[in-house]
Amino acid sequence: MSPVLGVDRPLLLDGGTGRELLKRGVPILTEIWSATALYLAPEIVKELHADFIRAGADIITTNTYGIARERLAREGVEDRYGELNRAAGEIAGRARDEADRAVAIAGSLPPFSGSYRPDRVGSVEALLPLYREQSEILAPYVDLFICETMSSASDAFSPRLCGGCHWEAGLGGLDAARGPVRPPAQRRDRRPSVCRPGGATGPRVPR
Residue 173 and residue 167: Cα distance in Å, rounded? Predict the structure, then answer.
């Protein structure tokens, strides 16, 4: 049984956000990718979440794949880091609240070394505070986290780090051998949460 929605079937994840926003005419900055839409076209982001729900998605993903401090700094908007993460959570929450059925929200935690660049993957010591910071900001808005586009064996350790951050934030994690694990005092205001590696894998909603 899913620990997220309490249903005895596979859950359907939404599709890619960035390219769909491009199709809808939202200008995308290369560095921060789809996060551009959070301040240029927030209603289109909400509409996209809603469309994925209507298409059958059980889980929608926060539009935070492009929100990394280093990338934001290159665009001159690092000071908006917290604001953009919270905006992404709030927008996803509005789409979920307007749905006519139960929908979960996954907090997207991006590869801080850049997509598909295993040569740039940082050390565990460097990654841990980055994942902790972002997961703590997103935690009030999400039911689970998805660590996206892990590009090497070293990078794939990030979901394990992510699970530790979630534990501290009051969420559960996912142990590869044992499945979902929960903190001693599970939050009473939402369903159990899991952390799972992701990115290009997993079901996608037809466009």
Answer: 7
pTM: 0.77
CB 68 within 8 A of CB 60: no
Q: Domain 18-197 falls in which CATH fold?
A: TIM Barrel (3.20.20)
Lowest mean pLDDT across 4-18, 40-54, 163-177, 182-196: 182-196
CA distance 176 to 134: 22
In angstroms, the CA 115 to CA 121 distance is: 10
pLDDT the model gives residue 6: 80
Domain ranges across the chain? 18-197
- CA angle 73/28/152 to nearest 5° reads 65
Mean pLDDT of 42-57: 96
Closest Cα to residue 90, out of 28, 42, 25?
42
